[in-house]
Specification:
- There is one protein chain.
- By secondary structure, this protein is α/β, with parallel strands linked by helices.
- It has three domains: 81 residues, Multidrug-efflux Transporter Regulator, Chain: A, Domain 2, CATH 1.10.1660; 78 residues, Methionine synthase domain (Methyltransferase, Methionine Synthase (B12-binding Domains), Chain A, domain 1, Orthogonal Bundle); 121 residues, Rossmann fold (3-Layer(aba) Sandwich), CATH 3.40.50.
- The protein contains 15 helices and seven strands.
- The strands form two sheets. The chain has a five-stranded parallel sheet. Strands 1-2 form a two-stranded antiparallel sheet.
- The mean pLDDT is 89.
- Keywords: DNA-binding, Transcription, Transcription regulation.
- InterPro entries: Cbl-bd_cap, Cobalamin-bd, Cobalamin-bd_sf, DNA-bd_dom_put_sf, MerR-type_HTH_dom, MerR_fam, Meth_synthase_dom.
- This is MerR family transcriptional regulator.
- One of its GO terms (molecular function) is cobalamin binding.
């Protein structure tokens, strides 16, 4: 992402438009300007406030800091110190909006286009396709009908020897970067149910877990994404300190799935005891693993997993850590 300083300072947005883009109410924005001198908006001929892309980025950054527990005065002081040191923060990515127009192509069309761009190592074209798909579909169909089928195609092409492992790694790294950026567009909501999401021990495939983390954060949960190959002892120690309501791990191999067998037992010794859910391709290929891994199997799809998690958390009063 560009730094805030790199963005245009041309005044063009009304306070209503800025509020819609940032989630900062007009009355709050005026108070920030008055009490903390956060911004000095341009005044149009009719005396309306007008804000620039840089102003919007500053407000998004300040709101992100306050969403993460700082007071507005602390956030403003932090920003000023960074600016004095010549270290403008990076702009916070924009949270995707719900599609407002019919999709210009069916999901399978985007899947094929994205697949072809990725196996050509055409990063610019893949980014363009992904942007268009994101503007056409909500997160669940985007993930389940575009990205997951694309990943399956890439994996099958590698298995057949149609593409090199370098191409498979390029595609995975590209999508991982896009998904991490997407995760960071959603605020971390303190006070909401706290969930840890990651990959089981020895698990190197992380995109399924990452997509689930995005879905959960977009639906209002406080989610920490921990990445792949999480050692159980370390995870239990972290859970003892941070007290999550739920831990979710994914596995694509039998080895990774079976490595989770003792996690439920270890977590049961914690007070309060977090819920434990799991999923992933290993359990679809080998359904008998579900009987061998204690915990809650979250279902066959990302949507089933997100819905099951919602049901689990409704049954408990654990909402804050």
């Amino acid at each position: 992402m560009p730094s805030i300083l790199e963005l245009s300072d041309e005044p063009k947005y009304t306070i209503k438009a800025v509020s819609a883009q940032t989630g900062v109410r007009p009355v709050t924005l005026r108070a920030w300007e008055r009490r903390h001198e956060v911004l000095t908006p341009h005044r149009s001929e009719n005396r309306y406030r007008l804000y620039s892309d840089r102003d919007v980025a500053i407000l998004r950054w300040l709101k992100d800091r306050t969403d993460n527990g700082l007071s507005i005065s602390e956030a403003v002081a932090e920003l000023r110190q960074m600016v004095r040191n010549g270290l403008w923060p990076e702009a916070i990515p924009t949270t995707p909006q719900a599609p407002t127009r019919p999709a210009s192509a069916a999901p399978e069309v985007y899947t094929q286009q994205l697949y072809k761009a990725l196996i050509r190592h055409d990063e610019a074209r893949a980014s363009e396709i992904l942007r268009e798909a994101m503007s056409s579909y909500a997160l669940r169909p985007l993930f389940e009908q575009v990205l997951v089928p694309c990943l399956v195609q890439i994996g099958e092409a590698w298995y057949r020897g149609d593409i090199r492992i370098t191409t498979e790694h390029f595609a995975s790294a590209f999508l991982r970067g896009k998904l991490l950026t997407l995760l960071q567009t959603y605020p971390v909501r303190r006070g909401n149910p706290f969930i840890l999401v990651g990959g089981a021990p020895y698990e190197q495939h992380e995109l399924g877990a990452l997509m689930l983390a995005i879905l959960l954060r977009s639906e209002g949960y406080r989610v920490e994404y921990l990445g792949p190959d999480i050692p159980l002892e370390d995870l239990v120690d972290y859970a003892r300190e941070e007290r999550p309501a739920l831990i979710v791990l994914t596995a694509t191999s039998e080895e990774s799935a079976l490595a989770m067998r003792r996690l439920q037992e270890k977590l049961s010794r914690l007070r309060p005891t977090p819920l434990f859910g799991y999923g992933g391709a290993a359990f679809l290929r080998m359904p008998d693993l579900i009987q061998r891994v204690p915990g809650v199997f979250l279902g066959k799809t990302l949507s089933e997993g997100a819905d099951k998690i919602g049901d689990l958390l409704k049954s408990t009063s654990r909402t804050v850590r």
